[in-house]
Amino acid sequence: MFVQVQLDPDAVEKLVVNAADFEYALENDIKPAFGRSDESLEKFLRRGMVVWGKEVTRILEEGARLVEETVNPDAGGFVTAVLAGAPRTGKSFLAAEIARSSDFPLIKVISPGDMVGFSESAKCQLLRKAFTDAFRSKLSVLLIDNIERLLDYSPVGPRFSNLVLQALLVMLNEPPPPVCHSAILHNF
């Protein structure tokens, strides 16, 4: 089946893009480079939360205290926290809940699942970009999920990516600019 289409040679001159087109694109097509990563957080938060004990409440309260410390100008503005525990116990959920409840304008999730197939150098570049973006915002949270997988850790040996580990250690110890307040949440 052959269909012939007639093109108007003056169509380019007749094309008009107006403000409504830009508004539509902003709402539906464009994701900001800086801002909350609500879709990334939702993958951790979609099942809801059951506060099954005082320990969960204590962790959430400590997270809220760390968020307040991040905002406090006298505290230096840079806070890191590690949630460690057995696999599949809700550490990522708790970190995501703390990040979401912070109401910071920039929340970025760094997950090994987003780096499948990346070389060590590419992982380091992505980490550097995430930290640079966080330091450009006045208030930010970086949630680094599953560091063991990010480092390609294997208990047999033990083996891990020293390049990614060193990059992460340097960035975690690098102080942010004076106007920046950042919280870094990571879990093992």
TrEMBL record:
Keywords: ATP-binding, Cytoplasm, ER-Golgi transport, Hydrolase, Magnesium, Metal-binding, Nucleotide-binding, Protein transport, Transport
E.C. number(s) listed in UniProt: 3.6.4.6
GO molecular function: ATP binding; ATP hydrolysis activity; metal ion binding
InterPro entries tied to this protein: AAA+_ATPase (IPR003593), ATPase_AAA_core (IPR003959), P-loop_NTPase (IPR027417), Vesicle-fus_ATPase (IPR039812)
GO cellular component terms listed in the entry, alphabetical order: Golgi stack
Cofactor annotation remark: Binds 1 Mg(2+) ion per subunit.
Function field: Required for vesicle-mediated transport. Catalyzes the fusion of transport vesicles within the Golgi cisternae. Is also required for transport from the endoplasmic reticulum to the Golgi stack. Seems to function as a fusion protein required for the delivery of cargo proteins to all compartments of the Golgi stack independent of vesicle origin.
Protein name in the entry: Vesicle-fusing ATPase
Organism listed in the record: Strongylus vulgaris (Blood worm)
